[in-house]
Each structure stands twice: as C-alpha cells, then as structure tokens.
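Review this today:
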Amino acid sequence: MSKTGITRATMKSGKGQTDWTRLQAMSDADVRKAARADPDAQPLSKARLAAMRRVSRVKALRERMGLTQREFAEAFHLPLTTLRDWEQRRSTPDAPARALLLAIERDPKKMMALLAERGP
C-alpha cells in the first residue's frame, strides 16, 4: 500500500508488467478505487466523450490483420485512395464493398487466398 492508501497492482517486475495474481486477489471495490486513483486513467466527461470519433470498422479490420493500408488494398484489390477515404470517413463502402469487407472479416485468410489466385 502506498502513502495515499491506494494499492497499486499494475507493476510486477517492470514497466508494463501486470501482476495478475495480485490483481485477481483484489475485490471489485479495490480495483475501482485503484483505477480512479490513477491520474492517467480518469473517466471522460460527457463532453469529451461526445467529441471523440470512433475508428472506422475498415481501419479496425485492417489493423487486426496487421496490414498496412497499401498491403490491405493490394491483397483485396481495392484502390488505395478508396481505402483511405473509408478509413477517414470521407466516404462509405457501397453494398458490394460491404459484402467483400464482411467476407474478409469472417475469414480473412481464405479471402486473401481466393483473391491471390490468378484467373485464366
């Protein structure tokens, strides 16, 4: 316990290491108290929350796959500028593009393999 009476359970052996055993031993009330005491993790006000923008689903999908914009666009035969517009919400995918994105989301490896095959 620190001088402030707050239990810190986020550090184990170094920066970024979580002491899961210690954290799991804490009650929900202790966890909430420790979280609220962290100056870097304060709840957002309604005004700040309202001002935040969500990440586009296309960008989230691409990042989950670990691809750059160029790699994603090339793998799925999309114009790079179109992908950028979707990610920056300047435009939205039309119905065929949404169907392609849904198929990619459901089975990205299979879609990459299918689109990598060369036709006759």
Summary: The chain has two domains: 1-47, 53-116. Confidence is low (pLDDT under 50) at residues 1-13. The CA atoms of residues 93 and 115 lie 19 Å apart. The chain is about 55% helix and 0% strand.
